[in-house]
Structures are given as structure tokens and as C-alpha cells.
Amino acid sequence: MRKQADSRFPALTSVEANGATDEQLVDRAGQGCAACFEELWRRYQVPLLDWFRFRGHGADGEDLLQETLVRVHRNLHRFDPRWRFSTWVFIIARRIAINHHQRFRVPADNQALETAVARDSPPDERLAINDQREKLWDVARRVLTDEEASALWLYYVEELPTKEIALILERSRTSVKTLMCRARKKLRPYLESFHRDE
Questions:
Q1: Do 36 and 28 form a contact (C-beta atoms < 8 A)?
Q2: Where does residue 170 fall: left (phi above 0), alpha (psi -120 to 50 degrees), or beta otherwise?
Q3: pTM here?
Q4: What does R_g of the chain's alpha carbons equal in angstroms?
Q5: One digit per residue, pLDDT tens: the chain, 198 residues?
Q6: Domains of the chain
Q7: Are 15 and 38 in contact, with CB atoms under 8 Å apart?
């Protein structure tokens, strides 16, 4: 059953929702503001789709993204404002990915990840940066364990602090730091070869 909008909280316009924090949007979306939930989803659909593709779900990524959307919407009332919304969303996405993997045992595809680059870079520079990033993340997927690669992705791409990565990966902060240190050591020879090639 859908919640009725609370008259104490008038619905925000798309422009107003665009300037709000994630946590403000969650609060208003929980009160029935459709524009707020749409804005939340607009902010997280690309990072989540990239996350699913990086984890090797390729063509299933969009289905998993939709499943995450539904799960987030149904459980907005369970969001704990002590944590960042991004952490909560990635916890849900990770659990959905794990369940999907267990159900279907999808073999990892080696599709390179498309990443965002600053728009003011010249086109040829953007292509070179994209190509280098794709190669690096492709190497990371081949060389690292799933948890090591996920920890680095959440830290460097999603820019989450180790405390939140620990929540997402269901590990201690110390364990996450150790995991990332081990992952960086495994990648160091590949990074050095990238620099030599350039």
C-alpha cells in the first residue's frame, strides 16, 4: 500500500529535489514525495549499474538495478539516518548481486567498465583516460578477489570511506584496510607496467 503524502511536508518540485541532500530526499520520499524518490534514483542509477557490471553481471545489470530500485522503495522506512544513504543503497545492491550469483552462477564476463571523465578534457585525452581506466579495472577483476576488487571500487570510484565499505562488505574496518592494502600490493606490478608503457 502506498503512503499518502503528509500535508505537513508539501511535495518538492524536481528543481527543489535536485538541490536537497540524499537524506532529505529519503525523508521526503518516505512521506510520499515522488519527485524526491525520482531524484534519488537519478543520482544512483548509473553508479549502481556500473557496480553491477563491474561485479560481472553484464547484461543482467539492468535487471539487478530494477530489483534494487524496488527493494529501496519498499524499504525506505527502514533507512537509518545515522548512515549515509549511499552506504545503505550499496548494501542492498551487494546483497541482490550475491543472491543473483547464487541463483544463476553467472560466469564473469570481461566487459570493460565505462567510467566518467571530466567534461572539460579534450576528446582524445578523455579517450586515453577511459582506455587506461578500463584496462586497470579489467586487470583488477582478473587479479583480485571479488571482495578486494569491490573494496577498491567502492573506495576509488564511489569515494566511500572505509567505515562505510566495511558495512557494505560486512567486515570490520581493520579487515577492509587490510583487504585494500593487499589488493594494492597485487596491483602494483600492473600499475608500474602501465606507467612504463606510457
A1: yes
A2: left
A3: 0.61
A4: 19
A5: 344 444 444 555 554 666 789 989 998 998 888 899 999 999 999 999 888 888 877 778 888 999 999 999 999 988 888 888 999 999 999 888 888 766 654 344 333 333 333 444 455 554 455 556 677 778 888 888 888 988 888 888 888 889 989 998 999 999 999 999 998 898 888 777 655 555
A6: 117-198 (1.10.10.10)
A7: no
